[in-house]
Amino acid sequence: MSQHVLIIGAVALGPKTACRFKRLEPGSTVTMIDQNDCFSYGGCGIPYYVSGDVSEVKELRNTSFHMTRDVEFFRDVKGVDMQPRTRALSIDRENKRVLVQRLDSGEQEYLPYDKLVIATGSSPRKLPLPGADLPGVHMVSDLHDAEDIRAAVTKGEVSKAVIVGAGFIGLEMAEALADMWGVETTVVEITDQILPGLVSPSLAHMAQKHMEENGVEFLLGHTVQEIQGTERVTKVVSSAGELEADLVVMATGVVPGDALARECGLDCHERGGIVVDEEMRTTDPDIYAGGDCVVVKHLVTEQPFFLPLGSMSNRQGRVIGDNLAGRGKTFPGAVGSFVVKLFETSAAGTGLSLAAAKRAGFDAVSVFQIQLDRAHFYPTKELMTLELVVEKGTRRVLGIQGFAGTGDAMVGRINAVAALLPHKPTVDDLSNMELAYSPPFASAMDVLNSLGNVADNVLDGRNVGVMPDEFAECWESDQGECFFLDCREEADAGAYVERLEKWHNIPQGQLAQRLAEVPRDKRIMLICNTGARSYEAQITLMDQGFAEVFNLQGGMAGLKKWGLEL
User: Fold this and answer.
1) Which family is annotated (predicted)?
2) Residue ranges per domain, the chain?
3) Which active-site residues does the annotation give?
4) DSSP per residue, 385-433
5) Segments of 148-215 assigned E as strands
């Protein structure tokens, strides 16, 4: 039996739901409304349009076969009645209708439905700052913001910019402005690291260092207090002082668009977001919701969480389209996978960071590994930095984060672990994980296998490590309590011994014969290139009764990426 499906919202989830449902029930009617004149676009591509990587804004609205997703496209190609500039004012669940307003005329009317889909997305989190409404201050919430920013920089009107927030959008916009256009860009972040809550301080510091090398400045642990200007923005007042600015981008996160759902009595989470079941159905059996306006189950913590990603919206849209046609499909939840490009590098992750795992109540520890992304003898290769988060008692893998180049190698490893996480894998599963091998693509002992082995040794107490940031703190504050022992050959370590009074060198192969040179009353900090030889040295020393022996995880490679100047 044909039915009328009404969809509120037409950016990502709405169009996917509409098109999937119409393929399954061509005889049914689908009406899709959106309050904006610009709809069905790739919002995640906005920073790349600003940077110039995407040459024209219409490319963000085009299909892969070069058709623009406009009203005519949805009507003629998809059989969907698309109505832009139409705002939903309220939902009348009892009479199954939605009160809407035509924004161009101001007229109001009711649109009936048999089934309703709420795809209202999210909106930028607005800070109550004086001057936040000045021209030149942007939220990057839609394509119009993108066009305004791109127009200003291409006309040469922007020489200095301030980004508020060091999450995904903030960092992507900082790269876009600094890289292509040479804009002096400063990022102000209230926490003490970039990508807060997503990666460890060590990985965050590595990513920050690389961005600083490309001209982006950071003010961490600071807030913006006021934005000043007359006809347009000219200055940002922060807790660190005043910053000149021709452009300000507010990237302080987003909030789920759940107002319509709350007002009509649907269950919503206390921290925001519509509550849905695994079929993406709300507490009203005739109303579905998905995308940036809902909360879903985190498959590691099994708690509700908010994850505004276009990829998840598209997957949920297909599930809703199926279920509107009675197919009973489910969306069980997500593990929170991400990747962000930062100039010639990228940061990626899935599951929980160490800080997030501890907040969730896990007795967790992280292990750190730097290894080549392919066979060491293959001519083209690069180092990949990975951090694995595991639960101590159960040995369960809780998450993984990484920092590497912009190729597919690291993202492939992150995605492999993402596929495992819903099944509660252990360290042993990672150690024995099967991955495709050939020297141009991987090592015979893949970096993921090696990372699992490191975690196995750490959990069993054989490998007691320190992270690069912990080592740096020891190095800079040391008053003679530590003995820094380089386990590399003299050719690698000699230059450090010559320059640094507290740097010592005993090659790992000679350590058993030279134990008398190692003090037993100090903390021993072991160093090699990546942490492998220093682990062997640690076994030797611990076997001989040395009490406080620590292996620098990631070795000198990690220190260099972290930025410690020895």
Assistant:
1) Belongs to the class-III pyridine nucleotide-disulfide oxidoreductase family.
2) 4-121+255-324, 137-252, 338-459, 465-562
3) 44
4) EEEEEEETTT-BEEEEEEEEESSHHHHHHHHHHHHHGGG--BHHHHHT-
5) 160-164, 184-189
pLDDT score, position 223: 96
Arithmetic mean of pLDDT over the chain: 94
Instruction: Calculate mean pLDDT across residues 282-311.
Output: 95
At residue 506, what is the residue type? I
DSSP line for 317-349: HHHHHHHHTT-------B---EEEEETTEEEEE
Q: Which residue has the higher pLDDT, 300 or 558?
A: 300
148: which 2 tokens? 């305004």
d(CA 352, CA 336): 8
> Which CATH topology does 4-121+255-324 take?
FAD/NAD(P)-binding domain (3.50.50)
Long-range CB contacts (< 8 A, 24+ apart) of 39-45?
39/10, 39/11, 39/15, 39/69, 39/82, 39/84, 40/10, 40/11, 40/12, 40/14, 40/15, 40/69, 40/74, 41/11, 41/69, 41/143, 42/310, 43/11, 43/12, 43/142, 43/310, 44/309, 44/310
Yes or no: say if 10 and 29 are a contact pair by the CB < 8 Å rule. Answer: no
Instruction: Give the DSSP letter of residue 281.
Output: B
Identify the residue whose tokens are 């910019």. 161
Superfamily classification of domain 137-252:
FAD/NAD(P)-binding domain (3.50.50.60)
Q: What percent of the chain has pLDDT over 90?
A: 79
What confidence tens digit (pLDDT) does each residue in 489-528 have? 999 888 889 898 899 999 999 999 999 999 999 999 999 9
Spatial separation of the C-alpha atoms in residues 512 and 504, rounded to whole Å: 16
| Of 160, 161, 120, 155, the residue nearest 138 (C-alpha) | 161
Do 4-121+255-324 and 338-459 share a fold? yes
